[in-house]
């Protein structure tokens, strides 16, 4: 089911809101140990609408951050967000990871979050990013893995709608299961001192902020975003889709639980 490459989640206002909900909900879990020293140079590759950029800039206010993305529309939105937050240590450029118009060994750190899953050639992407990293510089890679999802009550129908997203992303050259590959990809790209840390999101009714912010507004919203394409390509019928979404929403009730694993890798050039 190979189709033209692209961003499987689309560029709707709803998707932009989902990205911000995800970033805000997971800030401490994913970025609690991410800090960059004063005057260090940081490349954020694939900044999108700036959801992660704001967090990076606020946590390392004295670092100099260059954020790049393929989409001028996304960059414009990211710029507006940065300006609204009064952040002054970020600049933006239109850029392609595979064709970086940047000098060799020009950054102290590279940061890549939820980007490799959308790359047709993630290993090549890491190799190109390594070129612009200074010797002894660090790279941080954060990716999810939809295969790590489990929940209660169990629902085969819910698993089917998640699989729709996995299949659709694979069909355009991405990989929704890439989290488990962070270590081998960093190793194959020639990085060293790799450390990969699973970051587990566990949700039950004791944490209503996670029920809303992660299970509903991040994960279920992400799955719902591919409904039209899943039905159009005949991966699933409408009745089965609705049963699956009901199964996912059932996990957000008082006796439900939801669990998902992100993988954060840090390595040195």
So, CATH architecture? Answer: 3-Layer(aba) Sandwich
**Inertia-based shape:** globular
Count up the helices. Answer: 10
C-alpha termini separation: 36 Å
Mean pLDDT: 92
Determine Rg (CA atoms, Å): 18 Å
- In total, the number of domains comes to 1
Can you identify the CATH class?
A: Alpha Beta
Quickly give the structural class: alpha/beta
CATH superfamily heading = Vaccinia Virus protein VP39
Helix content: 40-55%
* Record field, number of beta strands: 8
Strand content bin: 15-25%
List keywords for this structure.
single chain, 269 residues, alpha/beta, Rossmann fold, eight-stranded mixed beta sheet, 10 helices, 8 strands, 41% helix, disordered N terminus
Short description:
With 269 residues, this protein is an alpha/beta fold. The protein has one domain (13-268): Vaccinia Virus protein VP39 (Rossmann fold, 3-Layer(aba) Sandwich), CATH 3.40.50.150. The chain has helices spanning 13-25, 27-31, 51-59, 72-84, 122-131, 156-171, 182-188, 208-224, 227-232, 238-250, and strands spanning 41-45, 64-69, 90-94, 107-113, 133-144, 150-152, 192-204, 257-268.
Please provide a written account of the structure.
With 269 residues, the protein is of the alpha/beta class. It has a single domain (13-268), classed as Vaccinia Virus protein VP39 (Rossmann fold). Helix content is 41%, strand content 23%. The chain has helices at residues 13-25, 27-31, 51-59, 72-84, 122-131, 156-171, 182-188, 208-224, 227-232, 238-250, and strands at 41-45, 64-69, 90-94, 107-113, 133-144, 150-152, 192-204, 257-268. Mean pLDDT is 92; it is low at 1-5 and 7-12.
């Amino acid at each position: 089911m190979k189709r033209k490459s692209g961003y499987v989640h689309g560029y709707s206002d709803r998707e932009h809101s989902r990205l911000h909900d995800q970033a805000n909900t997971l800030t401490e879990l994913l970025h609690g140990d991410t800090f960059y020293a004063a005057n260090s140079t940081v490349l954020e590759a694939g900044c999108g609408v700036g959801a992660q950029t704001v967090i990076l800039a606020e946590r390392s206010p004295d670092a100099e951050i260059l954020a790049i993305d393929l989409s001028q529309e996304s960059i414009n939105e990211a710029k507006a967000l940065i300006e609204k937050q009064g952040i002054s240590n970020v600049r933006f450029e239109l850029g392609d990871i595979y064709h970086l118009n940047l000098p060799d060994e020009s950054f102290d750190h590279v940061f890549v979050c939820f980007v490799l899953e959308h790359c047709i050639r993630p290993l090549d992407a890491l190799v190109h990013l390594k070129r612009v990293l200074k010797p002894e510089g660090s790279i941080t890679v954060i990716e999810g893995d939809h295969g790590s999802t489990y929940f209660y009550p169990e629902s085969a129908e819910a698993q089917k709608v998640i699989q729709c997203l996995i299949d659709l992303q694979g069909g355009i050259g991405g990989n929704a299961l890439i989290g488990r590959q962070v270590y081998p990809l960093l190793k194959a790209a020639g990085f060293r001192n790799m450390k990969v840390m699973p970051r587990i999101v566990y949700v039950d009714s004791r944490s209503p902020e996670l029920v809303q912010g992660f299970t509903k507004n991040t994960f279920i919203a992400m799955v719902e975003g591919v409904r039209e394409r899943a039905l159009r390509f005949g991966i699933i019928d409408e009745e089965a889709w609705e049963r699956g979404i009901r199964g996912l929403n059932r996990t957000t009730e008082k006796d439900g639980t939801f669990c998902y694993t992100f993988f954060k890798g840090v390595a040195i050039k």
